[in-house]
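User: Assemble these into one structure.

Assistant: Restating your components, then the assembled model:
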Amino acid sequence: NAGVTQTPKFQVLKTGQSMTLQCAQDMNHEYMSWYRQDPGMGLRLIHYSVGAGITDQGEVPNGYNVSRSTTEDFPLRLLSAAPSQTSVYFCASADRGWGYGYTFGSGTRLTVV
Amino acid sequence: EDKVVQSPLSLVVHEGDTVTLNCSYEVTNFRSLLWYKQEKKAPTFLFMLTSSGIEKKSGRLSSILDKKELFSILNITATQTGDSAVYLCAVDLTGNQFYFGTGTSLTVIP
């Protein structure tokens, strides 16, 4: 049972480049979300999904797109990378039952130069 | 504006000490409050609290919620070096959106 798998673990982008951070879970969880973590800022919600085909914006959605075509996958797209998007990105999933909170992936450290 | 404030920001204790971490919140909606432990990588779930006054306990860790005064505490007794981590508090606003505090960094010295 892999849990929540994020790829890549590390990435360096040039300003203006685009890329997709991958997230997959094998627990059949309905809820999935993307967070970014910056020093002194805590975890901030970028986008979330309550099921396949349903997504919504979180606290800091600008510059990011998501889609949820399957229950398992929830990719995060950076359309035109900016240095302000340098951060650690976490994907998380949760069961509808809610009793155990979110399970987080191991994170992607992204640097935009 | 929704706000979750954790205190202290950092803490250094010796093994065997007892520590209390604080989380206060001001949010428009409240469903539950969660505590996470974050070591080098991903946060791991500790507790979910939904009702006031009911203590959740797991080994040396325990937590309680006060919905009237809008805060929660996380207690760790007989601390060990393995407890060194950042402890995150999060408030669940709608069932889908968690609002996180900035965390308390705990260092336990042997």
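Chain B touches chain A through 21 residues (CB under 8 Å).
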